[in-house]
UniProtKB/TrEMBL annotation:
<keyword id="KW-0808">Transferase</keyword>
<feature type="active site" description="Nucleophile">
    <location>
        <position position="412"/>
    </location>
</feature>
<dbReference type="InterPro" id="IPR002792">
    <property type="entry name" value="TRAM_dom"/>
</dbReference>
<feature type="binding site">
    <location>
        <position position="365"/>
    </location>
    <ligand>
        <name>S-adenosyl-L-methionine</name>
    </ligand>
</feature>
<feature type="compositionally biased region" description="Basic and acidic residues">
    <location>
        <begin position="12"/>
        <end position="26"/>
    </location>
</feature>
<feature type="compositionally biased region" description="Basic and acidic residues">
    <location>
        <begin position="460"/>
        <end position="475"/>
    </location>
</feature>
<keyword id="KW-0698">rRNA processing</keyword>
<comment type="function">
    <text>Catalyzes the formation of 5-methyl-uridine at position 1939 (m5U1939) in 23S rRNA.</text>
</comment>
<dbReference type="GO" id="GO:0051539">
    <property type="term" value="F:4 iron, 4 sulfur cluster binding"/>
</dbReference>
<keyword id="KW-0004">4Fe-4S</keyword>
<feature type="domain" description="TRAM">
    <location>
        <begin position="21"/>
        <end position="80"/>
    </location>
</feature>
<keyword id="KW-0489">Methyltransferase</keyword>
<feature type="compositionally biased region" description="Basic residues">
    <location>
        <begin position="1"/>
        <end position="11"/>
    </location>
</feature>
<dbReference type="GO" id="GO:0070475">
    <property type="term" value="P:rRNA base methylation"/>
</dbReference>
<dbReference type="InterPro" id="IPR010280">
    <property type="entry name" value="U5_MeTrfase_fam"/>
</dbReference>
<dbReference type="InterPro" id="IPR001566">
    <property type="entry name" value="23S_rRNA_MeTrfase_RlmD"/>
</dbReference>
<feature type="region of interest" description="Disordered">
    <location>
        <begin position="1"/>
        <end position="26"/>
    </location>
</feature>
């Protein structure tokens, strides 16, 4: 247990690992041994070559067809399933076998979550990092959770309009008229959106549709209009009026502009800031966590893990519109939020003002942190990271050399988290807490939350905070009160 949460030193010499014999069958079928990180079944043929099988589960015996051969492995799909795993369920969505949006609907939800938890632990182990014994799972509704989505639009050679998501491993669109994971106000709109596209003068000039559901059940449809068609703009304006939704065109191919066809709505999302409810304004295209319930679970877990005592100086990097910055602002002494997008920095400032919070919001390129960011790191004791899939390699290398006491890391890619965690642990941090967040049920995608701490600096900071608290209490006692009484 002494090494828990620390990076283990790699052995100088490693024994050659024996290869487990392939599970064999008498009829040429394959027996699935486990799940790969991306959710595909893993089997091996009679020669020992690895075969990744779409939609197969551990323990199942399957006849497969190879659709892609590679030097070290093959990729296949099931021709016939000869046995079923106990964890197999009937997919709740009619489009599950073709649509690439959800790739794990054939696996029971509990099995999906345990698989994702194990993927997180395994990727850390590959960096010689031992995860804590308890890795909680932040979970919520597995249906109707998705509050934003992008639907592809294509007009084929015969003039037929296709609306839907991409097929798995393909650019081909799968037509959909329902979606199990879309929020109900968005899912119910799908058939009417298809009819609307079919009524257009030039549907081939529509690239995709962006759907967004914000608080007060405001539905927004943003049409990617590749070429201006005035008649179709009028049709979309009429559609917005009939459906009582907000509608805008994002016009152009290379550079685009956003034109509202309805009254421009005030789009907001609510988060619980602990001491008060916060209302955050946003615009189409701003980053917004797709699952509002899990987003709040992340905020609540962060607050519980950090256990702020009011003296922390928080630096939020990749801050977006203030999702974490503003939610934690009441709990700490100061917050500095940094974001790469100028527009989102302005939104963050507006959100801070609207909620009566004092937050310093700055713009900077966080993928190439310079002297200014290094100065900010040196003047804060708590850092929060919420980077894109590429992670925060350069920042974590710099944080490893800093005096920062704790780093909270919200990750949407477990492999980049594991890489960045190795930098932090090499710099003396300890992995104190780790959680898997099921932000995207029915998919292999997982989010995670990790807290890295330097125990000795936290103790020093806590003692300093206690001294400051006692000093303030004594000052209050020594201050005269009206009427001359003490």
């Amino acid at each position: 247990m002494a090494m828990l949460g620390k990076r283990r030193a790699p052995a100088i010499r490693r024994e050659r690992q024996s290869v487990k014999p392939a599970a064999k069958s008498d009829d040429g079928s394959l027996i699935v041994e486990r799940l790969a990180h991306d959710g595909r079944g893993v089997a091996r043929d009679v020669e020992g070559k690895t075969v990744f099988v779409d939609a197969a589960l551990p323990g199942e015996r399957v006849e497969v067809a190879i659709h892609r051969q590679r030097k070290r492995y093959d990729e296949a799909h099931i021709r016939r399933r000869l046995s079923d795993a106990e964890s197999r369920v009937e997919p709740p969505c009619a489009h599950a076998t073709r649509c690439g949006g959800c790739d794990l609907q054939h696996l029971h939800v509990d099995g999906q979550r345990e698989h994702k938890r194990q993927v997180l632990v395994d990727l850390l182990k590959r960096q010689s990092i031992e995860a804590p014994d308890d890795v909680p799972m932040l979970v919520g509704d597995s249906a109707g959770y998705r509050r934003r989505a992008r639907l592809g639009v294509k007009c084929d050679a015969k003039g037929h309009v296709h609306l839907g998501f991409r097929a798995r491993g393909s650019e081909q669109l799968v037509d959909i008229d329902s979606c199990h994971v879309l929020a109900p106000p968005l899912a119910s709109l799908l058939p009417r959106l298809r009819a609307q596209l079919e009524s257009l003068e030039a549907p081939r000039h529509v690239g995709h549709l962006e759907l967004l559901l914000t608080d007060a059940d405001v539905v927004t449809v943003v049409v990617r209009q590749l070429r201006d068609v005035p008649e179709d703009a009028q049709r979309w304006r009429a559609f917005a009026g009939r459906e009582r939704l907000a509608c805008a065109l994002r016009r152009g191919r290379e550079s685009t502009d956003l034109v509202w066809l309805s009254d421009q709505p005030r789009l907001v999302t609510a988060v619980d800031g602990g001491r008060r409810q916060l209302s955050l304004g946003l615009a189409p295209g701003d980053f917004l966590q797709v699952n509002a319930e899990i987003n709040q679970r992340l905020i609540d877990t962060l607050r519980a893990w950090l256990a702020p005592h009011g003296s922390e100086r928080l630096l939020d990097l990749f801050a977006g519109i203030g999702n974490f910055s503003l939610a934690l602002a009441d709990d700490v002494a100061s917050v500095t939020a940094v974001e790469g997008s100028n527009e989102m920095v302005e939104r963050l400032r507006d959100n801070a003002d609207h909620n009566g919070l004092s937050v310093s919001a700055l713009q900077a390129d966080l993928n190439d942190p310079g002297i200014a960011i290094e100065g900010l790191i040196d003047s804060h004791d708590t850092v929060l990271l919420d980077p894109p899939r590429e992670g925060a390699d350069a920042l974590c290398r710099r944080l490893a050399q800093s005096e920062v006491a704790q780093v909270a890391y919200v990750s949407c890619d477990p492999a980049s988290l594991a890489r960045d965690a190795a930098h932090l642990l090499a710099g003396g941090f300890v992995l104190s807490h780790l959680a898997m967040a099921d932000m995207f049920p029915h998919t292999a995608h997982l989010e995670s939350l990790a807290l890295f701490q330097r125990p000795e600096r936290l103790e020093r900071s806590a003692r300093s905070a206690d001294r400051e608290r006692l000093r303030r209490q004594q000052s209050d006692l020594d201050s005269p009160v009206p009427g001359g009484k003490r």
